[in-house]
Amino acid sequence: MIAVKADKVNKRFYQHNKWHTVIADCSFEVEQGEFIVITGNIGSGKSTLLQLLGGLDRPDSGKIYLGDKELSLLNGSDLASIYRKDIGYVYQNYNLLSGLTVYENIIMSTILNHCRYDKDYLLELVSRLEISDVLYHNSRNLRNEQKQCVAICRALINRPQIILADEPTGNLGEHLKREALDLLLEYIHQYQRTLIMVTNDPEILIFADNIFELNNGQITVTKEKCKKRHILLC
């Protein structure tokens, strides 16, 4: 079953008096349950591609599908509903609401969806990512490492179909990086969910089902024949 599909997607930006192509005629499919890594140089368009897949931005041309839904055909309300219910997004800059506590940030998607959350699961997440002691602290007072952990918990709490993660371990120390990767891999294996992650970390690449290398707007797909399918051990 196809979870995510890009069909001849193009995206460009106008900067310094000229157009810059970031994504050029990009096509690929991601199966349900796959772990995909998007790699590339700084400024290659990795984050832009992830935002397009999540419906946070629209392509200039081409089509993006989440399951059987073409994103460009959805109105704002339907797109927002899919984003809240079916996608867990880990932002590179965390995107936390600074006026809210850690707890409130994590459960925000469940509030917007008018649904309950699994309290035991929340406690497990914050315990494993070592933010239990700041659960009721204002998020503006956290260290960057803690903010990163909150963003990961927020993406997982709703048990979404697809997780889109932009450098989710970039600000984590070695121990928490391994714990965060454990959580994400355990989640997609247990529930047959899909994970698409932007990272250049070689320690993470070996766990991917496929690696999408983005260069000059084009995707090169590399199959990992000797990937490790077990969970990282601390």
Automatic annotation (TrEMBL):
<dbReference type="Pfam" id="PF00005">
    <property type="entry name" value="ABC_tran"/>
</dbReference>
<comment type="similarity">
    <text>Belongs to the ABC transporter superfamily.</text>
</comment>
<keyword id="KW-0067">ATP-binding</keyword>
<protein>
    <submittedName>
        <fullName>ATP-binding cassette domain-containing protein</fullName>
    </submittedName>
</protein>
<dbReference type="InterPro" id="IPR003439">
    <property type="entry name" value="ABC_transporter-like_ATP-bd"/>
</dbReference>
<dbReference type="InterPro" id="IPR027417">
    <property type="entry name" value="P-loop_NTPase"/>
</dbReference>
<dbReference type="GO" id="GO:0005524">
    <property type="term" value="F:ATP binding"/>
</dbReference>
<dbReference type="GO" id="GO:0016887">
    <property type="term" value="F:ATP hydrolysis activity"/>
</dbReference>
<keyword id="KW-0547">Nucleotide-binding</keyword>
<feature type="domain" description="ABC transporter">
    <location>
        <begin position="4"/>
        <end position="233"/>
    </location>
</feature>
<dbReference type="InterPro" id="IPR003593">
    <property type="entry name" value="AAA+_ATPase"/>
</dbReference>
